Amino acid sequence: MRKTVILGLTAMALLVIISWMNAPKKPHPIAFSIPKGWPQPAYDFKSNPLTEEGFALGKKLFYDVRLSKDNSISCGTCHQQFAAFTTFDHPLSHGINNQQTTRNAPALQNLAWQTNFMADGGITHLDLQPLAPITAENEMAETLENVIAKIKSDKAYQTMFLSAYGDANINTQRVGKALSQFMLLMISSNSKYDKVMQGRDSFNLPEKLGYGIFQQKCASCHPAPLFTDNQYRNAGLSQDDVLKDLGRMRITNQPADSLKFKVPSLRNIALTAPYGHDGRFFALSNVFDHYRKQMVLGPTTDPQFNNRLPLSNFEIGQLKAFLNTLTDSVFIRDPRFSEPGAAAGPGNHGH
Amino acid sequence: MKHLLQYLILLLLGFSAFSETQAQQSISFQHFVGSQPLVLEDSIKNSNAEILVVRRFKYYVSNLVLIDAQGNRQIIPDSYYLINEAEPNSKKIILPNSNKNYSAIEFLLGVDSARNCSGIQTGVLDPMQGMFWTWNTGYVFAKLEGSSPSSSLPAHAFTYHIGGFRTGENVLKTIRLAIPGSSLPKDLQVKVDLNAWFSGNSSLLIAERPVCHSPGNLAMKIAANYAQMFSIIQP
User: Fold this and answer.
1) Which CATH number fits domain A45-187: 1.10.10.10, 2.102.10.10, 1.10.760.10, 3.40.50.300?
2) For chain A, is the Cβ count within 10 Å smaller at the N or the C terminus?
3) Taking residues A237-242, what's their average pLDDT?
4) In A, which residues are within 8 Å of B131 by CB distance?
């Protein structure tokens, strides 16, 4: 009788230990800290609580070429950290089979404060955004079915989904949420400009003069701290006769939205050339020349540009000095966001 | 001990047998082109006398409501169904157990705007189902694809992907069907007539418009047509 009791107790203890060993460990939460003076983020973190495990999974997905049809392109291929997650030196990024995309890859930064994505704002949720480049024929050209199948067959992913979500279920929603977790933490708020605003640094004379001109002539559409108002505006860029891009109108079907594009953030602008929704401006000088001379004024051009944007050579010089203070060298070297096994630098990314 | 085990097994069997006797009611969608049952890949003539072959026919039924004779509405929570001609099981909606009698059913043809706007969904709403526009967030509510000699497109294809939930391009349709005799049969048969796509409110000629791939005027016109494709088959 006593033997049975002891045996029974031992068995029970063993069972408890085994189930404890098999039970998935709780993921470790990450606190999302809002930079001082910034507005509340738009992203609903309650629906997707940030965890170390979810972030690590998102990072693996972001840099995984298997998300493309021929296993050649990852998110990170066109969103390179050293270029503030744009494509370095490319007006239009490349898709599989020597194809070109139709728009300039945007910088990935401060995405938690955006409600709509893409230059035309067609995508209404960050979790959904990656599905567009993954499935677009001229980008990664893969089906979601195949992406999920590739992920499911990978042992490392199975373990990572288990530790991020508590069970090994792998689906589109979880892929999107993990990618969001990785991208939500890409916050750029450590530029010289930020340090100056916090009283930890000071502008030199050209930067200071440039800041004044900026506030007077640019800040209505590019307000701090995000340096975009997230609106859609026609800044007088003529329609490219090959791309025939209607911008926001492609989504809304409203003629009033013709040739309107999302106002881009100017953070890290020194790193994100070429400029414009189709990358038509190779350097900042081209952008300034556009604003002061080449703008095409049409029916939907922003009324603020009724007289174009007069800028003297002197003002342009000072503005450039100020815009350089928006470069965040901490952000572009942050190892949390770096491609595993790759040193940050353009040398490793010939494309 | 052995007897106890046998007794337990019997008890369990008894339970399962009992639960099976509870009548499970259902709604079945039967697809037709006029009076002809739809057969994928078969050539058929529509109401505009255009010959066509249907390759894919799928649509979302959601937010199902059962309505009794007094007008009380029993909302089926989280009810999202993707009816797909290619998957016979998808054409039958199993209803939750209920002893009540119903005089009408109501549902949305499509996916409510809340589910269009709240990130990636799972199950039948997983974008993997191929009923989602990734470049212009939103579900394709109904999809009809195939070929027709009338189409001027390569391979004489026609593709109608109908959706749109935003103001000005909303094609969400509330469908209400009265149940004959105000008594829900065990398996309510709903006839779905594809001819409605081509000749409901206005005529849609494959020869003229073989493609609809985005929300907007044409999608709204087609949705106004196909909203009339449902009717109850008298038992």
Assistant:
1) 1.10.760.10
2) N
3) 96
4) none
